[in-house]
Design brief:
The chain is of the alpha/beta class and 209 residues long. It is built from 9 helices and 8 strands. The protein has a single domain, classed as Rossmann fold. The strands form 2 sheets. It has a 5-stranded parallel β-sheet, sandwiched between helices. The radius of gyration is 17 Å and the shape is globular. It starts with a strand and ends with a helix. Bound molecules: adenosine monophosphate.
């Protein structure tokens, strides 16, 4: 069974690659940002708290995310692989995940790091729009409505320039130490995410073999 973790800076295209990999290998795609946004839509105290933090571009507390991720993984059929997108994002989350993966018999995994420079991140994220209905992402578009479902396109609160800077700062401080851990463990697959989607994808597949 194939279990994957995919990580990298915002705008590296990890969501796009995760979607392709999930389709190719029949994996359950666990998209953390989206899972949390769904929770934020609940009219509960927890939902409100998550929504507020997401809009500021800061991380949701580790315990909350760990619990949501664990619940989600436990719902996946035992013989189906998973691809984790957006989790873990720091060393503490990584440690929680190690435990969750052991307990759910998914201790064998690969961690894919999709790397892009800060300039590319900023370029790709500014002007990004998201469909308010189905979540489809559009980079640099003049469209006002989604070409897939007709939903209204919006600029996500955390895709505004101030929030992007903040998210990148958080990324560098918290996500990079994970690289060292996975490299040392011998499960790291590192690819350059600056080329076209198909090229990055081919590179990942080549390295997974
Ligand atoms: P994303 O869509 O992956 O860029 O995530 C959007 C927002 O969701 C982040 O800025 C955080 O507020 C929250 N979030 C996503 N993943 C995590 C995580 N692993 N831990 C904590 N917060 C997260």
């Amino acid at each position: 069974m194939l279990n994957l973790i995919i990580f990298g800076p915002q705008g590296a295209g990890k969501g796009t690659q995760a979607q392709l990999l999930a389709k190719e290998f029949n994996l359950e795609w666990i998209e953390t940002g989206r899972l949390l946004r769904e929770k934020a839509g609940d009219r509960t105290k927890l939902g409100e708290k998550i929504g507020r933090l997401q809009n500021q571009g800061v991380l949701v507390p580790d315990e909350i995310v760990a619990q949501i991720i664990e619940e989600k993984i436990k719902k996946v059929p035992k013989n189906k692989g998973i691809i984790l997108d957006g989790y873990p994002r720091n060393i503490r989350q990584l440690e929680s995940l190690e435990k969750i993966l052991r307990e759910t018999n998914r201790a064998k995994y690969k961690a894919i790091f999709v790397n892009v420079s800060k300039e590319v991140t900023l370029e790709r994220l500014s002007g990004r729009k998201t469909c308010s209905k189905c979540g489809k992402i559009f980079s640099k578009t003049d469209l006002e409505v989604c070409d897939a479902c007709g939903g209204k396109l919006i600029v996500r609160e955390d895709d505004r320039p101030e929030a992007i800077e903040k998210r990148l700062e958080v990324y560098h401080k918290e996500t990079e130490p994970m690289l060292r851990f996975y490299r040392k463990k011998g499960v790291l697959v590192e690819v350059n995410g600056e080329g076209p989607v198909e090229e990055v994808y081919r590179d990942i597949i080549k390295n997974l073999k």
